[in-house]
Design goal:
The protein is α+β, with helices and mostly antiparallel strands. It has 3 helices and 4 strands, in the order αααββββ. It has a 4-stranded antiparallel β-sheet with strand order 1-2-3-4, with helices on one face.
Length: 108
């Protein structure tokens, strides 16, 4: 019985370690801090405002996803709006230049 309790306790400790959130590594700490003119939240707000000005009903879309420099180091934010229902040419992407604030909508 004593061995069973010891095995159970060891298993629970290992599970707790494996399931605990990672706070980063020393490798992450050496990365330079990314400086942007806009925050993720402000880029999202700008994208939503632009879409609404174009008459796009954001309630028809899932929660948007926001990325900085998604495909290349061009200092741009990309905000994806994916339709809740599957339709051809329904998704949109708003690209915002972090240096100038200029933005454009790309329809899928």
């Amino acid at each position: 019985m004593h061995t069973w309790n010891h095995l159970l306790a060891s298993t629970l400790i290992i599970a707790a370690i494996l399931l605990s959130p990672c706070t980063g590594s020393a490798k992450d700490a050496s990365k330079p801090v990314l400086r942007t003119n806009f925050s993720k939240e402000s880029a999202l707000l700008m994208a939503k405002q632009m879409a609404e000005k174009r008459g796009i009903k954001l309630t028809d879309f899932n929660d948007p996803e926001v990325f900085f420099e998604l495909t290349k180091k061009d200092k741009s934010w990309t905000v994806f709006f994916v339709k809740k229902t599957l339709v051809v040419d329904g998704n949109i992407m708003v690209v915002i230049n972090d240096r100038t604030g200029e933005s454009r909508i790309v329809r899928n």
